């Protein structure tokens, strides 16, 4: 279900360095994405995207992540944990491969999903307010999908810098869980019972994902104008009346996430340590010395992880 893109680590980090340099040149004027978006005073012109009002959720589907919040989740007893460690050690299991499921399909899936998640008559999260109140995007299921795809792409840029055999696993696990969740939500929340309609929607979403990844990649490897154009077409639905300041705010948000990811080691990212930076926060560029301090702290953190299930070959230096 995933399209394989061959982008070298060197080109990726060169692009991230370009982002870093842009941030440094403007460090005296740094603003959070929310502050940037609020600078505008243009009148809002509502875009007419739908022939009829889009379906709204009538109930909640299971989140499909964060099992610790599930009262029916079974926790392992000490003897079962010890047995598991014994099995892993005896059969010399590749834990980086095994870990790709719970990390990419659990932690990072949850990060993608919750950014723009909303339910009628429930308060919006601060991040959801950024999309629906600050950027004035429509509250619809299809809009949520576009925002999920954007966050998937941000993560996939970093995933593609992992060793190849783990890179494709992390991407695949994340994509699989996203589409499993979309299917469940359309069935439960939107009450779509037609199998043909569900299949058609999923195919459309998959086509959108491939198109978005291609257009965002082009922007990442060329310039910010191209990336901003891709964000305008996909997130802002090609709205001719969109406030350019809003597009700029989202561009800065994306730049910030990529910059943070470029400073993470493979080991930290592979263990699910990344969280999206909220849009009300500013990402300050760090020096080489600060970057080395972060790497050293990462090494100290993982130094105490000696259980067989905590083994990893992922780098702590890059």
From TrEMBL:
InterPro entries reported in the protein's UniProt record: Ubiq_cyt_c_chap, Ubiqinol_cyt_c_chaperone_CPB3
A GO biological-process term: mitochondrial respiratory chain complex III assembly
Domain Ubiquinol-cytochrome c chaperone: 134-276
GO cellular component, one term: mitochondrion
Entry similarity comment: Belongs to the CBP3 family.
Protein name per UniProt: Ubiquinol-cytochrome c chaperone domain-containing protein
Native species: Candida verbasci
